[in-house]
Design a protein that fits this description.
By secondary structure, the protein is mostly beta strands. It has one domain: Outer membrane protein transport protein (OMPP1/FadL/TodX) (Porin). Helices cover 5% and strands 61% of the residues. The protein has three helices and 21 strands. The strands form two sheets. A 14-stranded antiparallel β-barrel has the order 1-3-4-6-7-8-9-12-13-16-17-18-19-21. A two-stranded antiparallel ribbon has the order 14-15. A hairpin with an 8-residue loop joins strand 1 and strand 2. The longest helix has 13 residues. It is elongated and about 70 Å long.
Length: 417
């Protein structure tokens, strides 16, 4: 068993996470895709509570593991123009740039009871991701060709039930942040186009905590909190083209605190409803600035993302056991964007989203079960009017963003004991 868990854990850590669109990846399991994370802090029915609310671990009576593979299919289109000062000879500065991709994200969640009052949890998740690829041939290349942000969160946690009906939990977050940002640099002519690549990373630490109140056998309320994490990322910045030079780029990155509040209620043995309200304090992120970036002449400082605003998320979902071995999930949700018309750029394309989700659970036997989830995010059209300075060049992106995201997920649940 130890070898199996170690092998799966290693595969997840080495996997390349990627996601397009919103910076925050809410769903960390296929079952949570199926109900869009409704009731995540209060459900506490399986190992997924290890990530969303460690206090719920006291409800898990047997060792339980959930392994998910999540897929994101995104359609990101920026239609507009890019104006430069000074002007670039031979540059066609307008058009439509496609920045969407299809990517896959693995996650692992584990829960085990230690006694009647104590429980242990473990998760490997990816809470913040962004992947945007406009290619080196698009008119957007002087602002951005490719941007990747990946996080790998490894979290052991413990839960304690001091008395009925209250449980509390606390966990540690050991998290890696990886970032790649590439663009094309030039002088005053497209003949001198040169690629600038930046790859930075860092490990950092944080914590999370939660509380679960089991009001009755059918109703419970849960709340959880993930604290702010601070990174000091460092890496290589390389200019390749009309000459080659490299620098040591740096940046301070702050991932925002997240608060979740959920309600869960079983109406009967077949029908359940749940809801979640979450609040992400994006304003604490501040501006995302890269220092000492390589360029044609001398290193420069680039602000990739201006300050964001705090954002709310609302989800209402339901589960319906329509046959002995089958469960149907569904949800509707609203996800407020941390970007706005004044600060939005094409680096992290995002806008307010309405979400529809549907999922199906199948119990194979008393040991194994499967979950399949699908959700579609309807993203509002958003305008972009953003100016950025790259060394001696000032670039303004003006236009409109259109984005939609389909998420699918497959999950294997293993009730070990």
């Amino acid at each position: 068993m130890r070898k199996t868990i170690a092998f799966i854990t290693g595969c997840l850590i080495l996997s390349g996470y990627a996601f397009a669109g919103s910076f925050q990846l809410w769903q960390q399991s296929a079952s949570q895709i199926g109900d869009d994370g409704a009731g995540t802090a209060a459900s506490a029915n399986d190992a997924t509570t290890a990530y969303y609310n460690p206090a719920g671990l006291t409800r898990i009576k047997h060792q339980d593991m959930a392994i998910s593979l999540l897929g994101a299919i995104t359609n990101i289109k920026f239609k507009g123009q890019l104006n430069t000062s000074p002007a670039i000879t031979g540059f066609n500065n307008s058009g439509t740039a496609q920045g969407g991709e299809s990517n896959f994200i693995p996650t692992l969640l584990y829960a085990a009871p230690l006694s009647d009052q104590w429980a242990f949890g473990f998760s490997i998740a990816s809470p913040f991701n962004n992947y945007t690829n406009y290619s080196q041939n698009n008119f957007t290349r002087y602002t951005l060709t490719e941007n990747t942000i990946k996080t790998t969160d490894i979290s052991p946690s413990f839960a304690y039930r001091p008395f009925n009906p209250i449980s509390i939990g606390i966990g540690a977050d050991v998290e890696r942040f990886q970032m790649e940002y590439n663009r094309v640099d030039t002088t005053t002519s497209t003949v001198n186009d040169s690629l600038v690549t930046n790859k930075l990373d860092d490990w950092a630490y944080g914590w999370n905590a939660g509380m679960l109140w089991e009001i009755s056998n059918n109703t419970r309320i849960g709340a959880s909190y993930h604290a702010k994490i601070t990174y000091h990322i460092v890496g290589n910045s390389r200019f390749s083209g009309t000459g080659t030079n490299s620098t040591r780029a740096t940046s301070d990155v702050y991932l925002p605190p997240l608060t979740i509040f959920s309600v869960y209620h079983d109406f009967n043995t077949h029908f359940t409803m749940m809801s979640t309200i979450s609040y992400t304090q994006w304003a604490k992120l501040g501006a995302l600035t890269l220092n000492n970036v390589a360029g044609i002449s001398s290193p420069t400082t680039i602000t990739l993302q201006d300050e964001m605003q705090n954002a709310w998320r609302f989800v209402l979902g339901a589960h319906y056991q329509f046959a002995q071995h089958f469960k149907l999930r569904g949800a509707i949700g609203y996800d407020q964007s941390p970007t706005n018309d004044k600060t939005r750029d094409i680096f992290i394309p995002d806008a307010n989203q309405y979400i529809l989700a549907l999922g199906l659970g199948y119990e194979i036997n008393q040991t194994f079960s499967l979950d399949l989830g699908y959700s579609h995010a309807f993203t509002q059209h958003a305008s972009v009017n953003h100016t950025q300075t790259y060394g001696a060049t000032t670039i303004t992106d003006t236009g409109n963003l259109q984005q939609n995201t389909d998420m699918i997920g497959l999950q294997l649940n293993w009730l070990m004991t």
